[in-house]
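Comment thread on ticket #2218

A.B. wrote:
> Attaching the input chain for the structure job we discussed in standup.
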Amino acid sequence: MRFLLIFLWLSLVLPACALEWTHQPSSGEKVVSLHPEIALYWPTGAALPYRQARMFLDETEVSAECLRTGMFISYKAPRPLMRGLHKVRVEVGDIRQEWDFEVVGSSFIKGCVYTAPFKPRAFDKIKVEMKGRNMGKAWVELTGFPEKYKMLEERGKYDVTFKIPAKLAGKSCRVEVFLEKDGDLDRQLCEGQLTIAAPDLSISWNTPENGSAVDKAFIARGQTVPEATVELHVHTFFRDGVDFGQLPPDQHPKVKADAQGNFQYEYHFPSGFPRLAVTIIGVARDQFDNASKPEGLLLYMKSPGGLPPLKTEIKPPGPDGRPGSP
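C.D. wrote:
> Ran it. Output below, let me know if you need it in another format.
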């Protein structure tokens, strides 16, 4: 019985191993397209568990994006492949097939350069220039990030100027240009690597001006690193040092900075109290929970009827949010 099982196994597996497997692209082929269809065709008559077949491109598994049938397994990369040698491996059951091919691409691009500040930071401008075949569709990408920046052409010279995205702060990337014409695509990496400086974790208040008189309801606006969380300590007090009643307790709200680092906080002085002031102290925290130095804002509620202030010499707020505290 055991010999019969071995014979049956050999009759199924050995023909599959002995028969020729057809690859697409074929082994060693030079491919012009940056979007080649990669396929492996099963030998005729081979009983293979093709539904469990796995494909790897340059050691990265792409099985989830493959099409499997009783005749073949195929894959087409969603993004254009880089020029150069690419290795493919397919595993089906106990059988493994490996081959490689080379992407040579179309020769549309004749060269590219970019200019940027010596130590670029987020929102600094970068200019990219490319020479290539005219009347094409061209764009720039920063490797590892999905944004595309359209290039404008004048007689085969393409260029674009754009701001470095805030999310690149503290990271490195390459500048890559793409040129598409008549359904074919060329791509080229510009010389050099772009390293974006990490942002300084700090916070500042823009409006209202520190020490100014404001309406009973106002919006305080500030600036910090993009998409940071700003923790606020809001302390309301009687500006003349005389308590006219019990004020609400201190507040500790949090606000989120936008992609440009702008944030704002809306405040309302409590009703029924005269001659109030408020300190708003902000601390910015980044995604790694690093904290900035606190920055305070001292504001006075406008006196009704335009009465002159009794005291305006209150010192800036200290770490606890109270004016003049150590």
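A.B. wrote:
> Thanks. Noting for the ticket: The chain has one helix and 27 strands.
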